[in-house]
Amino acid sequence: MKKAKRNAVIAILVFLLLLAGGIYMAVMGVGPNESGRAEDIHLGLDLQGGLSVTYEITTKGATSEEIDATIDKLERRVHAVNDEGEVYMEGNDRITVELPMDTSKTDAHEVLDELGKPGKLEFIDEENEAKREKGEAYETVLTGADVKDAAAGVDSNNANGVKDYVVQLALNDEGARKFSEATAAAVQKDPHGLIYIVYDDQVASAPRVQTQISDGSAVINGMEDYERAEQLASTIKIGALPLELEQLQYNIVGAKLGREAVSSSLKAGAIGLGIVALIMIVIYLVPGFVASVALAAYIVLMLLILSIRDITLTLPGIAGILLSIGMAVDANVIIFTRIKEEIAAGQNVKNAVDAGFSKAFSAILDGNITTLIAAFVLIALGSGSIRGFAITLMIGIVLSMFTALVITKLLLKSLVNLGLSNEKLFGRAKEPKVPNYTKNFKIFGAISLLVIIAGLAFLGVNAGRKGNVLNFALEFTGGTSTTVTFEEQYDLARSEKEVVPVITDATGASASQIQIQTVEGTNQVIFKTPELSEEMSKDLDKALHDNFTISEISFQSISSTISGEMRKDAIIAIVIATILMLIYIAIRFSDVKFGVSAVLALLHDVLVVFAAYSICWLSVGNTFIACMLTVLGYSINATIIIFDRVRENMRNAGPKEKLDAIVNKSIAQTFTRTIYTSLTTFVMVLVLFILGVSSLKEFTLTLMVGIICGGYSSVCISAPLWYTLKTKLGKKENA
Is the bond into 191 cis (omega within 30 degrees of 0)? Predict the structure, then answer.
C-alpha cells in the first residue's frame, strides 16, 4: 500500500512538473528561437492579415479554360506554401493571391521570391536545347501546361540500399502522349539522350532518360539531397501554369476579422473553458476536477503543437478545435458515467474506476476513429479552409484520447490510491427512466421531416423574394472589390462603424455581406461587396465622396475564392469519408444497418442545419463549410456512443428481452451523457456568440443549432431508426 501511495505521489508530481513546463514553454518558449510560444502560432488571413499579390495575365488570347486551369494550379501551388492561401480573379485579366503571414516576423519580399513569378517552363530534347542556346527557333517536348503535379521523394528500394532523392512528375493525358514519344526517341541514342528542364530560359535540371515513359508518371532521380529535390519540384510546380503571369503589385493587408475578433475569441474561450470546468466539477465531483486539469493539459499540448509544427490557425481551424474540445469532454463524461454505474452496481471505488475506463474504451475508440477517418480524408482530398479544419480536428482528436485515456486515468487512479476513495466523492448512478423512444420515432421523424421540408421550401421563397436560393457569401459568388484611399487612416473597427453603413445604404448589401481589409502603411481600405452594377458603383462613389475625404476610389470585379475545383474536392472528400465511416461502423458492429442508420442520422443533421441557413437567410461562405463539417463530426460521435451501448446490451440480454426494450434502455443509459456533453460544448460556443464580434455571430449561431440537432438526432433518430431497419428489413427475432 505504501508503494502504491508513493507511486501515486510521484505520478502526480511528474505530471504537475510537465504541465508547468508546458505552460512555461507556451508562454516564454525554449531555446535560442523561443520555440513553442503560443504567440508565435501562425494565424490565417482572416485572423491576422498577410500578403496580397496581384498578377496580370500576359498571354494573349487566353481562353476561359486556360484561366481556370491557371487559377487551379496556382491555388494548389499557393496551398503548398500555406493551406489557407486564397486565389481569385480580379477583373478580366488579373489574378490575386492572398497569403496569411505575420509580416512583422516574416520578410514579405522573401516570400514573394519563394512564391516566384509564374514563368515559362519547358522540357526540351538535346537537339532543340542546342538550338535554344544559340538563340535559334526550337521545339519543346512539354510545357508547364502539360504538368499536373511535381513532388520530392526518397527512393530506398534501389539495389545498393542507398537513399536516392527523386522528383516525381505527374503529366496530363496530352503531356503523357508527347513525353512517351520523346522518351522513346531518347532511349534509342547511345548513350541515352537527355531531357532538359528549362525554367525562364535557365536550365534547372537535365536528367538522362533510362527508358520510355508512357504512363504519364515520371521520376527524376540522382538529386544531391532532399532539399535539392524539393527545390526542383517547387520550380516545376511554379512553372506548371498554362498562362504566363506578371506581378503588378503587392500589399500587406490587415485581418478580415481584426485584432478585436481574436482577443474577444480568446477571452470567450477562456471563460467558456472555465464554465465547462465548473460544470464538470459540480456534476462529477473529484473526477470532474481531474477532467478539468486534464483539459488544461489538452489546451497546453494543442498550443505547443500548433506553434512547433507551424500550423496556420483560421476560423475553420478554431471550429475544429471547438469540436475536439467537445470530444475531449465527451470522453471523460463517458468514463465518469460508467464509474457511477459501477458504483451503483456495488463495486468499490477502486474497482469502479478500473471498470469504468475498461467499459468506456470501445465507445471512445469507435467514436474517435470514425471522426478521424473523416479528418484523414479531408486532409488528403480537401484544400484551403477545409484542410485547415481537418488538421486541427485530427490533432485535437488524438490529444483528446490521450488526455482522457492516459492523463485522466493516471491522475484519477493516483488520487484513489492516496485515499480519495469515498463513493460520495464520485457519485452513484440512479436507475434511469426508460421512455419508449422507438414507439415515438414516428413523431420525432415527422417533426424532423417538417423542418427539413420547410428549409427546402424556403429555397424557392428566397429565389422569388431575394433573387437567390441562399445567401451566398463572396467566397462562393465573387463580387466587387472597392479600394478607397482616405485622407486619414481608417482601421478595421472605424471602417466597420463609419464606412460600412454608408456602403449598405448605397448598395443595398447587408453588413454581413461586406468584407473589409486594411492595407498596412497606407490609408487604403478594401471593401468587398456582392457584385455592383455600373449604376450602383456610381452611387457608392458619390456616397463615399459626400461622407468622407477621399483621394481615390477604384472598383474591380472579383471571382469567388472557393473555386469549382475546391468545391468538387470538398464534395468528393465528404462522400468518401461518409462511405468509409459507414464501412467501419458496419465492420465494428457486425451489422451494416448500424452504418446506414448513422449516415442517415448525419444527413438529417446536415439538412436541419441547412434549413437554418435557408430560413434565417444566413451567409453561406467559408464558415458554412466549417459548420457543416463540425456538425458531421459531432453528430457521428454522439451516435456511436449509443450504438456501442446497444451492442453491449444485446450481448448481455436475456432470451426473453425484446429488441425495442434493449434500444430504449440503451438510449436512457446514455441520455445524461448526451445532455452533459451537448451542454458543455454548447456553453463554449454560446460564450463565443455572446462575447465575440459581429462577424462571428452567424458562425456560432449555426454551430449551436448543429450541437442541439446532433444531441437530438442521437437520442431520437439514430437508434430508433436502426431498430426500424432491423425489424422491418431484417429478422424479427426478439422484436
Answer: yes
- List pLDDT tens digits, range 444-491: 999 999 999 999 999 999 888 877 888 887 777 778 889 899 989 888
pLDDT digits (tens, 9 = 90+) for 127-173: 999 999 988 898 998 887 788 888 888 876 555 556 778 888 888 88
User: Do 155 and 166 touch, CB atoms closer than 8 A?
Assistant: yes
Least confident of 125-134, 491-500, 685-694: 685-694
Residue-wise pLDDT tens digits, 398-440 = 898 899 899 999 999 999 988 888 888 888 888 788 889 999 9
Neighbours of 456 (CB within 10 A): 14
The pLDDT score that the predictor gives to residue 168 is 86
Can you say whether residue 314 is alpha, beta or left, with left for phi > 0 and alpha for psi between -120 and 50 degrees? beta
Which one is the CATH code of 121-240: 3.40.50.720, 3.30.1360.200, 3.40.640.10, 3.40.50.1000? 3.30.1360.200
Please report which confidence band the pLDDT of residue 651 belongs to, taking 50, 70 and 90 as the band edges. confident
Find the helix packing angle between 564-588 and 349-381, rounded to 10°.
150
Contact status, residue 261 vs residue 692, Cβ threshold 8 Å:
yes
Report which of residues 17 and 74 the model is more confident about: 17
Give the contacts of 78 (CB within 8 A, at least 6 positions apart).
85, 86, 87, 97, 99, 115
Fold matches, 45-118+248-253 and 121-240: no
Size of the chain, expressed as the number of residues it contains: 735
Rg of the chain (C-alpha set): 29
Rounded to whole angstroms, the Cα distance separating 202 from 578 reads 47
Separation between Cα atoms, residue 577 and residue 573, nearest integer Å = 6
For residue 105, what are the CA distances in angstroms to 19, 29, 64, 102, 108? Answer: 28, 16, 38, 6, 9
The average pLDDT across 277-301 equals 90
Domain ranges of the chain: 2-40, 45-118+248-253, 121-240, 258-422+434-450+564-729, 479-558
Q: What is the largest CA-CA distance in the chain?
A: 92
What is the β-pairing status of strands 619-620 and 471-472? Answer: parallel
For residue 713, the number of C-alpha atoms closer than 13 Å in the C-beta half-sphere is 30
Grid coordinates in use for 401? Answer: 484520447
Cβ–Cβ < 8 Å for 706, 605: yes
d(CA 647, CA 592): 13
Distance, in Å, from the CA atom of 385 to the CA atom of 398, rounded to the nearest integer, reads 20
**Exposure string (b/e) for 639-670, b if CB count within 10 Å is 16 or more?**
bbbbbbbbbbbbeeeeeeeebbbbbbbbbbbb
DSSP alpha helix (H) spans, 345-481? 349-381, 384-402, 409-417, 441-466, 474-477
The correct CATH number of 45-118+248-253 out of 3.30.70.3400, 3.50.50.60, 3.10.105.10, 3.40.50.300 is: 3.30.70.3400
Give me the half-sphere count of Cα atoms (radius 13 Å) on the Cβ side of residue 200.
Answer: 11
C-alpha cell belonging to residue 53: 499579390
Fold of the domain spanning 479-558 = Alpha-Beta Plaits (3.30.70)
**What is the SS3 assignment for 44?**
coil
Residue 106 pLDDT > 70: no
Question: Shortest CA distance to 561 belongs to which of 99, 88, 95, 82?
Answer: 88
Helix, strand, coil in percent for the chain, rounding step 5:
65, 15, 25
What pLDDT digit, counting tens, does each position of 43-102 carry? Answer: 766 666 677 788 888 888 888 878 887 787 777 667 766 666 778 787 778 888 877 776
Mean pLDDT of 616-624: 76
Grid cell listed for 18: 510537465
The confidence band for 665, taking pLDDT boundaries of 50, 70 and 90, is very high
Question: What is the pLDDT, as a whole number, of residue 696?
Answer: 66
